[in-house]
Each structure stands twice: as structure tokens, then as C-alpha cells.
Write a structure and sequence with these properties.
By secondary structure, the protein is mainly α. It is built from 26 helices and 3 strands.
Length: 431
């Protein structure tokens, strides 16, 4: 049965064997592959012997070809000087492990065929080729298939070659620093490749090459992928008002990356404010003291109060607008406002919880407390002790939420009228 298997050393298997048909002189070891299950290396014959009673010929063949990985032999490292100068031997060696080129003779390191074979297997072999081959465009093109850094081994003449420059650019935008960056950036034939390379690579690198930081199209492309790359945009680009408008319109937080003078532009701030009240942090002091501006912002979100001029925190209408949305913002109000009965009546009628921010004198004001507990029964907790024993106040509270009974005086907790009010009012939400 094993005679029917495709033997890697046979003529028929030559195309599958990266070592090729071995000549008798100089002799090389047979290929070995690693078994992923036991992590041991086997020759073809050894693998057949191991599995001959468990799997059929086709199963072993498939396992050898698809599941096992070649053991890259270090042939040249332990070779004789004669072998290191033998082109056939060297070729077979570098086809298995390109970096073996480092042990080849100088003549072989100059040999174009040997170097190309090594680079095809491992581009890092370029480090061991003779420097003269840096002038060979085909050698550099082959190495560029592996990594952009291969361009650093090329001569100036080869770097200037359009095909080489294009291959390098398509590999990585970082090659731009080793090419004629300015001319490439302005060359229409390179433009699509340059834009694609920058858009692909800059977000991964979290950087933008110096030569591209003033390029409007490229910066817009990379910022679309990663907004924080705006921090690399050239000042001259920010001075292009159209560019600034475009990036701020897309995302108001992009103003964080603008130069100070640009971030103060009223049009840009207005565009940012259309998206979020938090853009008020860019607004000039006169905007923050403008009642109309702040009131409009508070109607969208009470969070705008944190940016308002302190004088506006005493404005009853503005603060009531904030309380309607979130009573907690009343903590920003000035003491005078929290002591104003008319204002606090309006506040607790909107949100009974606001009673907790009232001045001490108003916590004993029956009108204010009644209004508060009618809207939110648990506001009784914040009233002065005397009002915990006020039947009308307690009834108003338990009608809104019977659980407010826990804040009533001991006497009223067993009061028939209060208990009747409790029985008639179900629980209405969490305190």
C-alpha cells in the first residue's frame, strides 16, 4: 500500500518538494516536517511507518501535505567551505531557509539567482546579499514583496525607478521617507496609491509622515479612519477654513486638535454647539455670560450649566429649565435663589426632590413642603420635624406614594385618616 503514496523524494513529487531533486554530491538531509499533534519532526518514510496501521495512503499523504510544516534545515550553517560555494547546494539551502544566505560564500552572496531564491523564501535575507545587488531593481522588487524596509537597501537610482517606488508605496506609506516624497505626493500617477497607503497604514501606526501632514485629501482620509490623527495636521492646513469646517462638522470634538487661534473661531464653535452643549468649553467668556446662549443650551441639556457664567446661576427661568430635566442641577444655584420662596415653589412643583436644596427656612414653609410632597411623597423626608406631624402634609405625601408614611410622626402612622389615604394610593415608583 505505501508504494502508492506520493513520495516527496520521487520524480512525481518534485513539484511538491521545495528541496527539489537532490543530487548525490554534495549530499543533503531528507526533508522533515513537524507533526502538529506530537510536535515531532518526521521524514516521509518515518511518517508512513508511524501511521501505516492507522490510516490509509491517501490520509497520510493529505496529512503530510496540508497539516504538517516543513522543518527549515540549517544546511549552510554547518556546511563545508566547498558546499558554501556550490551554487546548487546553496540554492537548495536558501530555498528552504532564506536567511541561510548569511553563511554562503561571498561569491554566492553576489549571485543574482541565489539572492532572488533567498529573498523569495525570506525577504530578510536581503541583509546578507552583497551591496552591489542594491542596484538590481528585480532584486529589490522581490524583497519588497516581503516588507517595505527592503527599499532601504536600494541605491538612489533604483529608488527613483517608478515601478520600484510604486511597489514600495503600495507596501507601506513609511517608504515615503526613503523616496522622493514631495515629488511623489504631487505626481498624479502615484496619487491613488499614496492615498490608499496612507489611509490604510496611518491609523495602524498612529502617526502621519511629515510629508503628508499638510495634504488636505490625505488628512481627511486618515482622520475618517482615526480622528485623533488630526493632532498631526499641519498648522497651514488648519488655516484652510474649508478644511476646519469640514472636520468640525463631522465631529465637534475635532476642535480639540485645532491650534488655539482656530479653536476660537466663532463659526467653528457654532458648528460644534449644534452637535453638543459640551462644545461650550470652546466658547469665549462673553458667550458663557449671554443669557440667550446659555438658556438655549440648557433647554437641550442641563449639563450646559457647568459652563455658564456664575451670575446666570441666579437666573430663575434658566435654573427652572434645568430643574425640569434634572433637579440635581439645583446644587449649582446660588444661596439667594434657593432661599427664594417663589422660585422654590416653581422648582418643587416640577420636581418634588428639589426640596432637599431649599434653604433651611423653606424646609419649614408649609406651602413649599405641601407642593413638594404632592409631586414627590418622599420629599417629606427633608421637611422640618414639625411638618412630619402635619396631617394635611402627610396625607398629601402618602397619596402620592404610600411609602412616604415612614417619614410621618409616630402619632400619624396610626391615624385613621392617614391610613385611609394610604389604602387608597398604591406605590408609585422608587423613592
Amino acid at each position: 500500500g505505501e508504494s502508492t503514496l506520493l513520495h516527496p523524494g520521487s520524480a512525481r513529487a518534485h513539484a511538491l518538494d521545495p528541496m527539489g531533486a537532490m543530487s548525490a554530491e554534495p549530499e543533503t538531509p531528507p526533508m522533515k516536517k513537524v507533526n502538529p499533534y506530537d510536535q515531532q519532526a518526521y521524514t516521509w518514510e518515518e511518517l508512513c511507518e508511524k501511521y501505516k496501521t492507522r490510516y490509509g495512503p491517501e490520509g497520510i499523504k493529505d496529512f503530510w501535505e496540508k497539516r504538517m510544516t516543513i522543518v527549515r534545515l540549517r544546511l549552510l550553517e554547518n556546511a563545508t567551505d566547498e558546499q558554501r560555494s556550490d551554487k546548487d547546494f546553496v540554492l537548495r539551502s536558501v530555498r528552504q531557509r532564506g536567511s541561510e544566505l548569511r553563511f554562503a560564500s561571498e561569491a554566492m552572496q553576489r549571485d543574482r539567482d541565489v539572492v532572488l531564491a533567498a529573498l523569495t523564501q525570506d525577504w530578510t535575507a536581503i541583509e546578507y546579499m552583497h551591496s552591489d545587488l542594491g542596484a538590481d531593481r528585480e532584486v529589490i522588487l522581490e524583497a519588497l514583496k516581503g516588507d517595505w524596509e527592503a527599499i532601504t537597501f536600494a541605491t538612489e537610482e533604483v529608488r527613483a525607478d517608478p515601478e520600484v517606488a510604486m511597489a514600495a508605496l503600495q507596501t507601506s506609506v513609511l517608504t515615503l521617507q526613503h523616496l522622493k516624497g514631495d515629488s511623489i505626493a504631487s505626481d498624479p500617477s502615484f496619487r491613488p496609491a499614496l492615498v490608499a497607503s496612507a489611509t490604510r497604514d496611518c491609523p495602524k501606526m498612529d502617526n502621519v509622515p511629515e510629508a503628508l501632514r499638510g495634504d488636505r485629501e490625505i488628512m481627511l482620509g486618515v482622520v475618517k479612519q482615526s480622528p485623533k490623527l488630526l493632532r498631526f495636521a499641519a498648522k497651514t492646513l488648519w488655516e484652510d477654513h474649508g478644511f476646519a469646517v469640514e472636520v468640525v462638522t463631522k465631529d465637534w470634538t475635532n476642535l480639540d486638535y485645532a491650534p488655539p487661534a482656530v479653536a476660537k473661531d466663532n463659526e467653528l464653535i457654532s458648528l460644534a454647539l449644534e452637535q453638543s452643549v459640551y462644545a461650550l468649553r470652546f466658547a469665549p467668556p462673553e458667550w458663557l455670560a449671554d443669557r440667550a446662549v446659555i438658556l438655549a443650551a440648557v433647554r437641550r441639556s442641563p449639563a450646559a450649566l457647568k459652563y455658564a457664567d456664575k451670575a446666570l446661576l441666579a437666573d430663575p427661568e434658566l435654573m427652572l429649565e434645568a430643574v425640569r430635566q434634572d433637579f440635581g442641577h439645583l446644587r449649582l444655584a446660588g444661596p439667594a435663589l434657593c432661599a427664594d420662596k417663589a422660585f422654590m415653589l416653581g422648582a418643587v412643583r416640577c420636581r418634588g426632590e428639589a426640596l432637599q436644596f431649599a434653604a433651611p427656612a423653606l424646609l419649614g414653609d408649609r406651602d413649599v413642603v405641601l407642593a413638594a410632597v404632592a409631586q414627590y411623597g418622599h420629599a417629606l423626608e427633608h421637611a422640618v420635624e414639625d411638618l412630619h406631624g402635619d396631617r394635611e402634609v402627610v396625607i398629601a405625601a402618602v397619596r402620592q406614594d404610600k411609602r412616604a408614611l415612614v417619614f410621618a410622626s409616630r402619632a400619624l402612622r396610626s391615624d385613621e385618616e392617614v391610613l385611609a389615604a394610604c389604602r387608597g394610593q398604591p406605590t408609585t415608583g422608587e423613592p
